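pasting for ref. prot 1 ->
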Amino acid sequence: MGQDNKYIFDIESFDEEEIAQRKETRRKKHKKKRMMSWVFLLLFVLTIIILGYAGVKMLIKGISSKQQIDTEITKETVDTGDDTSEIDKLINDEEEVVIAPPEPTEVEPTENDLYEEAIRNYIAKMSLEEKVAGIFIVTPEQITDVDAAIRAGDGTKAALETYTVGGLIYGAKNMVDKDQFSNMLSKTKEYSKYPLFLAVDEELGNSVFPKEMKVTATMTPKEIGENADPTVAYLEEEKIANYLVSSNINLNLGIIADPLTDADNEFMQNRSFSEDANMCGEMAAKNVNALHEYGIYAGVKFFPGHGSAREDTSNGLSVSTRTADEMRACEFVSFKAAIDAGADMVVVSHVSAPNLTGDNTQCSQSKYVMTDLLRNELGYNDVVIITDSLSKAAVSSYLDSKEASIHAIKAGADMVLNPENFKEAYEGVIEAVNGGVIAKERIDDSLLRIYKVKFKGKTTEEINALTAE
């Protein structure tokens, strides 16, 4: 490297005096820096001390001020004899704020509400006489005064104008042949101002149709139960449904749901599916399904159970010794299954069940059976409750037609089946309603249930259109 590089020097080129001066200069600089550092540190500490002292003084002053205020408030309270604090006075001096309750929210009616309203409006058009007639199902002879109704002509038309009954029930004497019977019912339906139940009591293995009608025979409930196949119960009831539809019948009151609780009960031996309540219920439910498949309304009988009552109520009083607990564990199980399957009606028997009801009142006359049990305990508010035929001796031997009909309605029946004297019963019920013995609302509630069945499949709009006619 060349000797002329300006950044290269030789320490030996400095003399000792110059070196000493340089050392002294550096020492003075270092001393000055240390002094400045101590000054800054001292100033910082003093600042902290001053700020801390000022904060403590302000805190002490605040506490002292609060004590003074409290003392003055206490003194003022003592002087005035008033123990209300200044804060409380301020609160009390404020005007009371009244919070208005929220505006009630209008609840939109449900589809079911609108449907029921439409039916009630339809019913409201009826006169009292029409309403009362509408809760009876009777034979055609009872309104036409003929011995055997086999055709529907002017007499039937006039009778239906006078007595707007809820339905008519037919038997073998009304049936000559299939065409005659079908035409008679078609005309009857045409003549009626209001929809009619056109009914039979057609049981499996026990047809009301005469041989001339050539109706297909069916197995008995006992035979079906022994087979233990619910499908068979459906297929056998389907045979019934087939010829009921072709005859213009729209209601069958012939489904038996009673378990056979007394093996020696000859009256019910072939008519019950089984002693097992679950099997009876399942079979009866299949009967209901088969009828509904063909558009036929289904009625199940004989609530609360005829399986232990050996006598036929057609001949006189028949008694069941079954207790309430026994029936809840057995009979009610089978009826519940049938009703839950969609049964439209429950036929209440004339059996007396003192261990159930507490007395010998026929079940068809018992508020406990129809209202307390069926409506309230079992919860069937919509199903139509109908009496067994009131012309049977178990009732007619003890009560006249007027009494039996009024008692049944007051006890909870929606419909009265075939009283011994329809016109006497009809006039008696009208008199009872006018006299306040039976509430008008009671009749309207029954008609609501009845027309829920009759209008099954109709829309709210369609029912409203009928009301507007």
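and prot 2 ->
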Amino acid sequence: MTDASFDNHRAYLFAIAYRMLGSAADADDIVQDAWLRWQREPRDAVEKPKAWLASVVTRLSIDRLRELKRRREEYVGPWLPEPLVSAAPPDGGELAESLSLAFLTMLERLTPVERAVFLLRQVFGYDYPEIAAIVGKTEANCRQQFSRAQKHLSDARPRFETSPQAQQRMLQGFLDAVGSGDIARIEAILREDVELISDGGGKVAAAMRVLKGREIVAKFFKGVASRPLAELSYEFAAVNGQVGLLLKVAGRLDTIFVIESIDGQAHTISAVRNPDKLARVS
């Protein structure tokens, strides 16, 4: 086994770990731990390097997720995944959906093993015998875990607009409406059941709970628009496989917005403000 053969699978291993953990920093740590185990493994002991490495990364991620879940119970305010910003344009496909902030946030409903089983089966296409060997469960148990995960997610999984064009139109409409300070214009772009999830991690100003409902969310953004901000700028970028908005104040990244929309109106607005989660992008 060589370092080159490990590097061939590095992006795939990160894809598994990031979807498991919702944190790029923790996913990097997991991939590094897998590399150390790879170095210690006898060269003739691994017949299928990719499968072996994926198994190691998944097991490490399950253990790390158990630790993270305990920490997230003490997190200040709503929690959102650490965003990934890419130079590649979003394609709006199935893999992009499995990377979206909304999808990763929904995965938090699952237990660590349910999450692993669901991702390995639904996103990465593993068979049940392979999944059972990875997570240390029977095939029957894995089928049950997958079924439970599907039910947990289907109960709260509206069908968002996935085309990059629709996402950018939504973000531009959002910018124009909030920039106008007109409460009626802001309300017009929001669904009645809209939710705003603002993640400041207790380190910057953010809503301390999920704001729900058109009137409440509109009033929040009208208040934001009334505050003068010097040297405000923005740009569109690919954020977790979708079109996102990078808002900068005085040249410093301040907030990453991603908006999930249905029929041209915002359903879920995710605003990542925690500086720790923006550091990788900056």
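Residues 164-278 form a domain with the Nuclear Transport Factor 2; Chain: A, fold (CATH 3.10.450.50).
The mean pLDDT is 91.
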